[in-house]
Each structure stands twice: as C-alpha cells, then as structure tokens.
Design brief:
Blueprint (H helix, E strand, L loop, with lengths): L2 E3 L8 E3 L9 E7 L3 E6 L3 H23 L23 E4 L8 E4 L11 E2 L19
Parallel strand pairs: 6-7
Antiparallel strand pairs: 1-2, 3-4, 5-6
Length: 138
C-alpha cells in the first residue's frame, strides 16, 4: 500500500509511505551491510529496550555524579594529619667557641663514637600531647 503522487513535468512521481499513527509507525531497529533492514513498531519490546538503553546512557552518569556529593563542587579541600610517635632516641651535642669544650649525650650506644670527650647525662621526659582532641598526638 504505497501512494504515487504527481508533482510536475520533471518530477512526475514520488513514493510516499501510508500515513499511520505515531505509536504504531514502523521503526528501523537494525540494518546489516546495506542489504537487510529489520523494522518493528514503536510499541514493540525491542523499541522499549532501545529507549531504556538510551535513557540509561544519558541519566546514569548524572545519578553517579550526584550520588558522589561532588555534583556542583566549586572548591574543596582535604586535610590529613599523620600519626606521629616519638621513638625515644635522642642525640644532643652542644659546642662552645673552642673545639675541645663540647658537651654531648646520646640515648643510643651506636652513636657514642660521634660524641665529644665530655658526656653529661641529662634528665629527659617526654609525653604525647593532643592539643586539638582528635586522638592523634600532635
């Protein structure tokens, strides 16, 4: 059922498909190497799957970016405080104007060779402090 319409002396005919309602119009679903075309009506399951896939390709990136709480983020910052712990190893050397007047002390026996001739043992106390109350020593 194809209509033939006359337009004039040079274009005397044109093939027009029959008029149908939009939901029942045939839609090309697949074509292979210019030889076959598979058509289905707009109310078919194949066309509904096509519309769902097209909508998913459009909306899923927006939903993913909105769910990450960074959709309209203009400026952001991130601060991380490292965990700092004192290893209780100290090496102290005090020097004076003359080369032989230096004084030192070390908590490690491996570093005793680097100390000057006079060694004085001080009283050393240490304690962790948490000034901002975040549970990590500052």
């Amino acid at each position: 059922s194809i209509l033939l319409v006359a337009f004039g002396p040079k274009h005397w005919a044109c093939w027009l498909p029959p008029m149908t309602l939009w939901p029942f119009q045939q839609v090309e679903c697949f074509s292979a190497s210019y030889s076959r075309s598979f058509v289905a009506p707009r109310c078919s399951a194949a066309y509904c799957v096509y519309l769902l896939c097209a909508a998913a390709l459009f909306f899923f990136p927006f939903f993913a970016s909105f769910a990450s709480d960074n959709f309209w983020l203009k400026e952001g910052s991130y601060h991380e405080q490292p965990w700092v712990s004192f290893s209780h190893e100290v090496f102290v050397v005090l020097s004076a104007n003359s080369p032989g007047d230096g004084v030192g002390w070390s908590s490690s026996t491996d570093l005793d060779a680097l100390l000057p001739d006079r060694v004085i043992a001080p009283i050393v106390r240490s304690s962790p402090r948490d000034d901002n109350g975040d549970g990590k020593p500052d």
